[in-house]
Structures are given as structure tokens and as C-alpha cells.
Amino acid sequence: MTNSSLALAFAICSGLSTSALADGDPANGKKLAQGSMCARCHGVDGNARSTSLHVVPLLAGQPAAYLIQEMKNYAEGTRVDSSKNGQMAKELRLLGEAEYADIAAYYESQKRY
């Protein structure tokens, strides 16, 4: 592979990995996440601390595209909601695609502890 081919491949991959983040507004996502139930379980920055009795996934640093898809899955009922009283699905049904993108962009931008 030539140097120009490598550079092109790198540019394409780099663009793909950040495209979901570019679609959402991390600043608005932070407001949404902290103003809703998200932060109660997942932590203010997405670095939740699980216990042996309460397992909570880390959201910090997860790819935005993955987070958006999982939020949709919870809201649509295609992913089992094991949160207390099904609160996760209830909260996500109140939000739309733009809010999912913003929240996902915020959590993607956070560093894991």
C-alpha cells in the first residue's frame, strides 16, 4: 500500500469514528444527562461505579453510535431494561433522536476513570 493510500484510509477511518460525535451537541448532552435520570445511575460523567448488587454500565468513552443504538433499543423494548422499575426505558421514551445524539456525544467525549 502506498503512502497516499494509507493516508486516505486513515482519513476515511478517522472521519467515520468521529461522525457520530459531530452529529450531537456534547454541551447540550451534558445538560440533558445531568438534568435527567442518566446521572443518578451512570454518574455525572458516565463513570458509574458498579457494586455486586447493582451493576451499572460505564458510558464514558463509549462510541456515540453504539450509545444511540442502545438508547433506541431500550426505548423500543428490544433490549431488556433491568433498571429499577424499568426507569431507563421510561426516561428514554421521553426523548427523541436529537437528544439521544446529544447525550451520546457527551458521554463519548468523557474520559474513563
Overall description:
The structure is a single chain. The chain contains six helices and no strands. It has 113 residues and is mainly α. The chain has a single domain (3-109), classed as Orthogonal Bundle (Cytochrome Bc1 Complex, Chain D, domain 2). The protein is globular and about 35 Å long. It starts with a helix and ends with a helix. Residues 1-21 have low confidence and may be disordered. Residues 24-111 form the Cytochrome c domain. This is C-type cytochrome. It holds the Pfam family Cytochrom_C. Keywords: Electron transport, Heme, Iron, Metal-binding, Signal, Transport.
Topology of helices and strands:
Layout: H1 3-23, H2 26-35, H3 38-42, H4 64-76, H5 87-93, H6 97-109
